[in-house]
């Protein structure tokens, strides 16, 4: 049987859990990616888990620059994209254009085949 309890974090909404077990009260913030440990920005391409759609991935960027870089790259490539878990995703295969654009600011490697 489920249980209902009040959230004690100043939020007055009820929280319902149908799973048995402990309800964790501390919110878990996603860990910020500190960028690449070796200082290299890697540009790769993948289709995995995207129903056959090709996506260009950019990893190893400093967390402070992710939003601005993603915006620049989307405008440069003329396509959509997102920032997920410290990785910039650009829709389509734009590895060469992205690598050339980022090469002026970072040490860039094209990863994958």
Low-confidence stretches: none
Q: CATH topology of one domain, anyone?
A: Translation Initiation Factor Eif1
CATH hierarchy, class of one domain: Alpha Beta
What kind of assembly state do the chains in view correspond to? single chain
- Average pLDDT rating: 80
Summarize the helix and strand pattern as letters. EEEEHEEHE
Strand arrangement across the biggest beta sheet: 5-6-4-3-7
Architecture overview:
The protein has helices at 66-77, 95-102; strands at residues 3-6, 14-17, 40-46, 55-59, 81-84, 87-91, 107-110. It contains two helices and seven strands; from the N terminus they run ββββαββαβ. With 113 residues, it is an alpha+beta fold. The mean pLDDT is 80. 18% of the residues lie in helices and 29% in strands. The protein has a five-stranded mixed sheet with strand order 5-6-4-3-7, with helices on one face. Strands 1-2 form a two-stranded antiparallel sheet. The protein has a domain at 40-110: SUI1-like domain (Translation Initiation Factor Eif1, 2-Layer Sandwich).
């Amino acid at each position: 049987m489920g249980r209902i309890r009040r959230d004690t974090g100043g939020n007055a909404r009820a929280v319902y859990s149908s799973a048995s077990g402990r309800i964790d009260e501390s919110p878990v913030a996603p860990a910020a990616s500190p960028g690449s440990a070796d200082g290299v920005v890697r540009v790769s391409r993948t289709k995995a888990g995207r129903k056959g759609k090709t996506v260009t991935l950019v990893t190893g960027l400093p967390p402070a620059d992710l939003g601005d870089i993603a915006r620049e790259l989307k405008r440069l490539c003329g396509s959509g994209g997102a920032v997920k878990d410290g990785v910039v995703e650009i829709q389509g295969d734009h590895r060469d254009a992205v690598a050339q654009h980022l090469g002026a600011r970072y040490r860039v490697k094209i990863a994958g085949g």
